[in-house]
Specification:
Length: about 525
Amino acid sequence: MSKAIIAALLGKALPELDLPGDLDFVVNIPPQPHLGDYATNVSLIAAKRLGRNPWQIAEQLAASLKNLDKNNIFTRIEAAKPGFVNFFLTDTYLQGIITEIEKQGDDWGKIKSTIGTKVLLEFVSANPTGPLHIGHGRWAVAGDIIARLLKATGHEVKTEFYINNVGNQVEKLAVSVRARRAGEPVPEDGYGGAYIADVKGETRDEMLENLLNQQKATLLALGIKFDNWFRENDLHDQGKVALIVTKLNDLGVTFNEEGAIWFKSQELGDDKNRVLMREDGRPTYFAADIAYHFDKFNRGYDYLINIWGTDHHGYVNRLKSALKVLGLPIERFEIIIGQLVSLYRGKELVRMSKRTGDMVTLQEVIDEIGADATRFFFAATDVNSHLDFDLELAKKQSNENPVYYVQYAHARICSIIKKSAERRAQNIDLSSLNHPEERALMFKLQTWPDIVFESARLRHTHRLTEYGKELAAVFHSFYEKCRVIGNPARLALVASSRITLHNILQMLGVSAPESM
RNA sequence: GCGCCCGUAGCUCAAUGGAUAGAGCAACAGAUUUCUAAUCUGUCGGCUAGAGGUUCGAAUCCUCUCGGGCGCGCCA
């Protein structure tokens, strides 16, 4: 919230001092309290560009900014060491945040974005040939939260799951199921997991539908619903795959060899050329995927986001180069790569293999540690980093899990509010809120919109969990030192803390219990 | 071999090129006659895998080495 205010002030101050307006500076919270509530490095950046003394610029900027601060949001704005400009917020401004939070309620933290684009977010898209694994769970949670973040920052978002119900693997599934039922060994390249025995349905499509429904149920257990389930076979049935191959052919980026139609991807930076149509006339997955993304853009979306597992990362350039050739704006097509989860039971690595059937499913993990903890755990790390997930630890420590720490803060506040029988007065004098613990809490609360904005921009779900833990910690610390009941101003502060905690948990898709 | 991702405290992870690299868990020592102890306070713990480079400033950017994950199908 304050960052936008500071950025606006800088927007006025920079031209006043004849400084460039396109500087790549940042506004952040400095590491030490004595350095202020916020700081900017704009003078350092400007000095580098102009070959000037950063300290001199910082001093001029500080004076100019203070002059522009008509609403007296800041007590001091001053230059510091190499050339930072430090900002100190007034207590009055921070107290005003409480009123603001109560006014906004569930909308507190949401911000209107000027971007306002229609976004299609595709994620999970697991093959319908088996249960979801723990990696799917991680990517699913990431996608679901990113969707919430984008909606909260003014985007119109639709989520989609692409069902690969065409191809060799779905035939293998049916063969495997039938073999198992007949008491015969499944083929070498078939699916040997224990779940094969439980697949229902007579036809191949019924089996796929059965497994898809299991996947849907698992996702629903995590609170994840998709706006659209897109079936690959529709692309084929509607001739959209054939059309794409024709288009590429017309563009002169294909060639025939060994009876197959190839895409000249090597000319476009790929390691080798790729087959679009097989020798037997069936299109490859690649051809269908080009058609799929062509279709996405044609459905009127301004921006596409995919979350792909790391096992598909080698595929990114191939697909983008094809879409580029087709004239699509690939700068508005973003692919987030989700790294895998290594599952441990204690210190022992659990190998995940559908083939051997030795795998822990996502459903089992949810059953063991609960949806809230599962979501929080998966959200708590950068989806692009490897994650070592110890099931024993997650179970054993369930009471010390960070998710309970955050939830507990919420429950504690609900208890206080319940216990303070007096109705809150309308115009509470908040000016007494100026002790360090109170100030720390107010300051933390007012950063929430900035957290939402940055989490959305960077697609970082773990910023939300980090913030949740931090806010809970600041609250618990405040609670230890400041008695609330009987103090209307503190009660208002606590009420706005509850709203913020609730909204954090809401964004994470984790429940906010009123008692624990 | 080539490509992408990663390597930060004993463990799991943070840190939009910024100021003295932070949390949780584990370990140790304390705190409650009063609003939820699923809490709080303190201590211990680091040459950010290693070596160079870029600059006012590097965990972050570049090069190389080592180590790990994942790719490199007319599978999806």
